[in-house]
Amino acid sequence: MNFLAKLIHYYEKLYGEALRHLGQEQASLAVIVAQTAIELCTEAAVEELLRIQGVDGIREPILDLFQSYNVCNEKLLRIINAVSNDKIQESSFWLDLKRLNSLRNSIVHQGKECSVDEAKQLIPTVGEYVEYTHRIIEQRKYDLDPPH
User: The CATH number of 3-141 is which of 3.40.640.10, 1.20.120.330, 1.10.940.10, 1.10.287.130?
Assistant: First the structure.
């Protein structure tokens, strides 16, 4: 299994785990796992988008600039927007994605507990984000190599 396939497998598994923890009313743990799924999805998407653009040779130097694949990081967001030819921050789920990220940070760094209702509202954002990244990757493939 190649690197990209492994990442896709991991983030899909993590999303499933987040939903399982949410079903068990372990809201804070579900949020942490959901954010991890987003970061793995982001890593896979950026890797694939750079490859599609034909600049995978500079992938490592670019990605080494980041400590994580937090899509809410402004600098990483600029790279994602450039290689995807899209602006994720204009998507319908962007604000919830940012809220999920902020909530995860509050849980991990400040010990905040979140409610099951709050987690139920935000965790489906992972599924929307995953669908979005798949759609953008397929669109870029088409844009750069349209059928003849």
Answer: 1.20.120.330
The amino acid at residue 22 is L
How much is the pTM?
0.87
Residue 60 class from Cβ within 10 Å (0-12 exposed, 13-18 middle, 19+ buried)?
exposed
Convert the pLDDT of each residue in 40-97 to its tens digit. Answer: 899 888 888 888 888 877 878 888 888 889 999 999 999 999 989 999 999 999 999 9
What is the 8-class DSSP label of residue 111? -
Confirm if 144 and 52 have CB atoms less than 8 A apart: yes
Q: DSSP assignment, residue 3?
A: H
Neighbour count for residue 100 (Cβ, 10 Å) = 26
- Under DSSP, the state recorded for 93 is T
